[in-house]
Amino acid sequence: MRGGTSKGVFFRLKDLPEACQSPGEARDKLLLRVIGSPDPYQKQIDGMGGATSSTSKTVILAEPTQPDHDVDYLFGQVSIDKPFVDWSGNCGNLTAAVGAFAINSGFVAKDRIPENGTCTVRIWQANIKKTIVAHVPITNGEVQETGDFELDGVTFPAAEVQVEFMDPADGEGSMFPTGNLVDDLEVPGEGTLKATMINAGIPTIFVNAGDIGYKGTELQDDINSDPAALARFETIRAHGAVKMGLIQNIEEAANRQHTPKVAFVAKPSDYVSSSGKSIGAEDVDVLVRALSMGKLHHAMMGTAAVAIATASAVPGTLVNLAAGGGDRTHVTFGHPSGTLRVGAEAKEVDGQWTATKAIMSRSARVLMEGWVRVPGDSI
Q1: Which pTM was predicted?
Q2: Where do the structural domains in the chain lie, given as residue ranges?
Q3: Which Pfam families match (predicted)?
Q4: 2-144 in CATH: which number?
Q5: Is residue 161 a contact partner of residue 361, using CB atoms and an 8 Å limit?
Q6: What is the C-alpha end-to-end distance of the chain, expressed in Å?
């Protein structure tokens, strides 16, 4: 399925081989072989993956384990060139497809699906233990996929799926793990960088583009064709992960590629997107570029968009300051493929910031369904 600007292979838990219905080596080996990893050529020719972080994804859906939910959603980010599946976070883009899959697969009760209108799918995101609500359009009793909703980074228009991330901050700790809206992050080779480290949607480290020699208008090739630049970002990410308490030492970052994300922000500026579309400074509130699985993302991860929206809603963060400062409930940001508008509600309680909800629009559709062949000696 395509969900937002990502693509993944979706499974019902009950359809997996019995040995793969529980977390562990057998499950990981199966999903690696399905996607075509690890691939030293980084093409995933012998699998279903698309050789980018946006297309090397797997989803497992199961009966809900929580009351008042329709489905459990487990996300696995499959490494392209290394033999591991990262289960540490969510994929916000594919969440839009989870709603449709849940309806099509019978997870949602028939009496909750209107003949025409919108079906509200209550999703339990099992990786991060959060509720997400997808509002899926229904026509003649079936999921509507076609429409005129355009999403930068997706080639064709489709039906709009509104996704609400409820209480998106980490329930086990502060939304700002260090206790600060802006930290001094010491990074070998970079010096001391100003950084906003937030856990909302997905743990994300934001730095100022200008502090690391960028403008915020960069496209994928500007970063991904530069091995030294990628190494710099990985170093920033690793040291930020330690400071956020996600890992104990730098070496652990290599086996935790999916989280945290690292991103850089800048004030609005004119640029030309990857599709050739002109983006004016007046079209956006802030520019954001983010890396996923060691490469600059072609658009924006959905979970990182939640982090952007939430950080922009808190006065004083680097994202908020780059967007002009002050109180805001939504932000339009520029990314390599174009622009995206996202909203968030944040409030300060007893000196601690918390987010109540983040919301964005995505689209989704089934690309194919059937059998995926996996060699018997893979698990």
Answers
A1: 0.90
A2: 2-144, 183-354
A3: PrpF
A4: 3.10.310.10
A5: yes
A6: 24
